[in-house]
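Async update (no meeting this week)

Hi team, since we skipped the sync, here's where things stand on the single-chain job. The sequence we agreed to prioritize is pasted below, unchanged from the tracker. I ran it this morning and attached the output directly underneath so nobody has to dig for it. Comments welcome in thread, and please keep replies under the output.
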Amino acid sequence: MAEVYETNNFIHNAIDKDLEEGKCHEDILTRFPPEPNGYLHIGHAKSICLNFTTAAKYNGKCNLRYDDTNPVKEDMEYVRSIEEDVKWLGFKWDKRLWASDYFDEMYECAVQLIKEGKAYVCDLTADQIREYRGTLKEPGKESPYRNRTVEENLQLFEEMREGKYADGEKVLRARIDMASPNINMRDPVIYRIAHASHHNTGDKWCIYPMYDFAHPIEDAIEGITHSICTLEFEDHRPLYDWVLQAIGKWEKPPRQIEFARLNLTNTVMSKRYLKAMVDDGRVDGWDDPRMPTIAGIRRRGYTPEAVRDFCERIGVAKANSTVEADLLDACVRDDLKTKVENRNVVENPIKVVITNYPEDKTEMMEIENSREVPEMGSRMVPFSRELWVDGEDFMEVPAKKYFRLFPGNEVRFKGAYFLTCNEVIKNEDGTIRELLCTYDPETRSGSEGANRKVKGTIHWVDAATAVKIKIRNYDYLMIDDEEGNSIMNPDSLVETYGYAEPSLGEAKPGERFQFFRKGFYIADSELTTDDEKVFNKIVGLKSSWKKK
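Output:
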């Protein structure tokens, strides 16, 4: 079970007060209520963590409930992904429930409202309903069908259920107040016609409840004490309360509390937009490692511990704000740096030939697996006359304060010897074919000769035993253009090849490593095979995160 957040927040304060005043049941019960119409994203992770850890804080329980009231957009693929995401984050629900389990009871509640004059069947179209609703400054006007008799409304609602009318031909509306300053209270639609087969109830129903009507009833039936939701539902809370009070069946109805949703820089949080990117082929599916979906960040290599830590660090707020994506990166980096081992990998490789090293000799060099955790021990890596170095570690004409490899300069090859670059051999087209270097045999790592000072240290890979790997380097999926509009980053994925030390040839899908001086990487769960190793960049290396 994931840890319980001990940080003080206004939601817990409200629950404490409700318990003290006896306004709720002593057994705290929360719920995470996704609609199965898409994959969950990092914003949902905040809600998952909040609902489950709040229940755990009070030794209560948390249900997983699918709000499956819209059969047109829902799919069992999304159900499976949601459950995998919740489990991956480290949480276990008490009960798995469906809004559709309560369709019969919701229907009876609607009939009750009709009998009490609190609901009526309306023939206005969706556009007409919007027109009649008014504006924030002007009250709405009543529907011409608002004063139908109870008997007529009961008959029409039954005929709607029987399938007599087409989609959109009639709706059931709550009869509240067309002059309310809250537009959500101006006779909202609570049932609509939809001739669509439902994954759970089949063809039993052709009318379905609207979310604002269904949700409070679901919460009340289950005994939810606190319905924790995001801030966009704050204006809907009066309707939530009205539904429960109008039905009047529950002595201690649930209380809705809103918190600010998560907004991340350079990140899209719209399910609709994310689905469009998948459908248009702009990304390679819902689990593309660039996607902010939980499936995507899982494949990218983020850990559940890092995501939970991130949710704890950002806390719970009452006002919307935007969190820098760098903070999430920092949480991932902080978690991985004590868990994964270093490996040497070079990109844009340049061949180094050590001219004074024996051609038939190979040594095994001991290299530490982690500077952060000495307990991770060390490994033996082959070293011979020909090596690969990273393209960023050589500059023919060095810039100021460049201390890596350049003609005439001596550097430390980490875990091995000191080498001096003597000559640059080029191909006919001017590209570098190889660097001719010499080594100082007295400077093997661990020897007294290795104690003399040099300014530069670089990593390397033995050419004879190197493993060629595919590297997928990621950047933010979204960036701002010159006019401040959010657009897809054309450089969000850069694929390249590199050379790695031999052990990475045995890497299994899902294994994580720190590529020395580069960042943290994971063997891709879908693309890594025995024949080709494909690594996704999880996050780069930085010493610490500072608020900008």
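Quick observations from my side:
The longest strand covers residues 418-426.
The CA atoms of residues 158 and 391 lie 74 Å apart.
Reply here if anything looks off.
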